[in-house]
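MerR family transcriptional regulator structure dump, as promised
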Amino acid sequence: MEKKSKLLTIGQFAALHGINKKTLMWYDEIGLFKPAAINPANGYRCYNYLQSPILETILLLRELDVSISEIQNFIKNRSAKNLKFLLDEKIADLDSSILHMQAIRKTLCSHQQNMHTLLTMDLSEIRIIEKEKRCLVTVDIDKDTSFEKSVELITAETAKYQLGRLHDASYGSMISVASLRSGNFDDYSKLFIEIPFMAQKTGLHIQPGGKYLRAFYKGDWSGIPLRYQSILEYADKHGLTLSGFSYEKGINEMVVENIEDYIVQIEIPIWG
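structure tokens r here:
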């Protein structure tokens, strides 16, 4: 105990806690953290080891972006109850930030995968892939829904999930296999939004996991029916039964300017 009560210079105490001594001087000036004593010979601030837990608490709260005024209020009213309340609040904020960063990482990984696909794809190829089940938010549309209305619907739906920007989500359109088989290639019925941190909840569209036919189309929308015809012919030739919906999404929007260079990824579930 004698060693713990021994006075330390401001430089020694700052080094002990890995901070600049100017921080301690500022904390003293604003009345947040006072030295244990002032050396009468030279006016230097002195601290003792017993003050360390209080300073570490202040430093922790500052790292959690707690304001100086909040910390001053806590220091004046220190108690287990008040500290628990403060930490509960900051842990909730931290959890929210972690979820946001995880969502950003997932979005970046999705863009990274799209760029890899762009660099390695064969536009003429149709192939079978495996996909995991996904939960999608969908909005209903029909052939009379304008582009402006589609954007409005997507924006409104993503706002419900507190996304910072539309591009924090992956989005695209859906057309039923039944419509494709009937030759109604403009009969889009849904827009889908894949939110990075979305867990399975009631009311979401479940994009099934399993085998899919994947193909790509480059150009404006007028040529998509021909691409679908080639996909259907491929499925019939190989005895594949397509089911549910075709999921379309652009994969190079971030790196093109002209619609002629726009590439759509098409994925359709294979039944059985």
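The longest helix spans residues 80-120.
lmk if u need the other ones
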